[in-house]
Amino acid sequence: MAALTVALLAISLGVNAQTWYIMGEYIWSPPHPQGTYEETHYQAEDTEINGMEYHTIYVQEQGVLLGAYRNEDNQVYYCKWNGSKYEEERMLYDYDLEEGDFFDEGEFPMQVTEVSTIVDNNGVSRKKLTFLFIGHESESEYWIEGIGSNKGFVNSGHCSPTDDGAIFHLLCYHIGDDLIFTNPLYHTCDIDEIDENIANNSVSIYPNPAKDIIKILNDNNLAITNIEIVDLTGRVVLSTEKADNINISELSEGQYFVKIYSETTVVKKLFITK
Q1: Which domains does the chain have, with CATH numbers?
Q2: 160 pLDDT higher than 60
Q3: How are the residues of the chain apportioned to helix, strand and coil, as percentages rounded to the nearest 5?
Q4: For 81-177, where are the E strands, in sequence order?
């Protein structure tokens, strides 16, 4: 139903209207509960700022105006709406960046650590830029050329520099009713399905972030049959039937999913290695 709502909204705004559907997952250390939320950014009417044409961006859930953007070659420029006027333009994306380059137009400076390629739902190859934040190496961000950031279209360069924080996922991207990109970890834009499979807060990971060992806190005694740890590309890097004292010392620093299997469901959780 959620995917249908997003698609119909895009159609109502015009054949070329764009929508970005993201999910955030809070990573708190116990006893604080983990949590998830979903947010949809959508392109609406055009507007003129300083004699140039921009596309306005809203957040669907509240219908709140976020700002307006324009494209210029492989760069995207953005004017934030502060409630009464548009602020000074800044660069939102520079898809010409290469490995080792810096981007300091966002809230926190970050550096390109990897340049790769993804193939979208239409078979089009798109450049993918992966960043680490300078001074906050436990958090990363990625951009997909022509689509935007995993943190939401207007949130490039946003960081949560805390011991806990949040991790974000671009779940899907539409142009009108055409689904251009689906995150390979989910294959869905359906909020209900994601909630059923992910937001099971009876299972949590501790500690998080972790260095050598993680444990599964299984408050409702879920009958666990197998546990997999996968990286952000979906590659399985560890598999075990053991639900406590899982040795992660061989994993590189970064972000991973724990997929916890039972006979009836799969629970996905995120954790950070340090």
Answers
A1: 2-195 (no CATH), 200-273 (2.60.40.3080)
A2: yes
A3: 5, 50, 40
A4: 90-94, 102-103, 110-119, 125-133, 136-144, 148-149, 166-175
